Amino acid sequence: MRLLPTSKNLVGVLPPSPSCPSVLSLFKALPFSFIFLDLEHTPHYPLHRLPDTLNHLGSFPSLVRIPGKNSLDNIQKVLDSGAQNLLIPMINTREEAEKIVHAAKFPPLGSRGCTSSFFNEFGTSEAPFATSLENEKISVGVQIETMEGVRNAKEIAATPGVDWVFLGPVDLASSLGVIESDASFRHEDVQRTLRDVGSIVIEEGKEVGTLITGKEDAQMFDSFKINVALGSSMLLDGSKRFLADVDR
Fold it and tell me: Going by fewer Cβ within 10 Å, which terminus of the chain is more open, N or C?
């Protein structure tokens, strides 16, 4: 499923690890809009396992964050594994965004190589090397999480082929120099930056999302359409509440 919301807000969940089938099944059983598979911050997760993970999810929508913007070949590998929704971290300029789109799209929109792989059932489907049709199935999200990216937000969002923009509050807190404060990414400077950049992205006609930790965040960024909740926090908070309830 291509993640391109219009009127409905999409709320996904970020599991502690994309390689644990039981945790993925647990979140898949809940009414989340998608599951966020983070390959950037899970170096122990081998890329060749991604087809199995996606197959386990079946028709349940997923969003895959690739290991890094500087490894454009990872885009090819993730797409050939069957992913339909990409998120690329640390995009700071329009030029970087254009390179991402070029790597993610088949000609004439880009330079993605044609092959038979998991995404087209190894050439057994009716259109084994469909390019224009496959381009329509892929959504490309880019992540702004530095002050350089903030300064170039308008140009990044306006890049043809970029479908939506995700704002990374933790790295923005680091870029703003407030990561070590008690509030961290809830710092007023971070929150203001998220709102300001979000407005810029929306003005460019693109969807925007960020990390949310609860109702307060969801209400504060009610115009953001693609939001991600931390699954590890949910599991910890739920466990803490359970232990508090049964503590005698």
Answer: C
Stated pTM of the model: 0.89
Q: Cα dihedral sign for 204, 210, 212, 216?
A: negative
Tokens standing for 37? 């598979």
State the CB neighbour count (10 A cutoff) for residue 246.
Answer: 7
41 is catalytic: yes
What's the chain's average pLDDT?
86
Contact 75, 88 (CB under 8 A): yes
Given 41, 44, 48, 187, the catalytic residue:
41
Q: What is the pLDDT of residues 168-206, one digit of tens each?
A: 998 898 998 888 776 777 888 888 999 999 999 999 999
3-state secondary structure of 6: coil
Q: In the chain, which residue ranges form alpha helices assigned H by DSSP?
A: 21-28, 50-57, 73-80, 94-104, 132-137, 147-151, 153-157, 169-175, 188-203, 215-220, 231-246
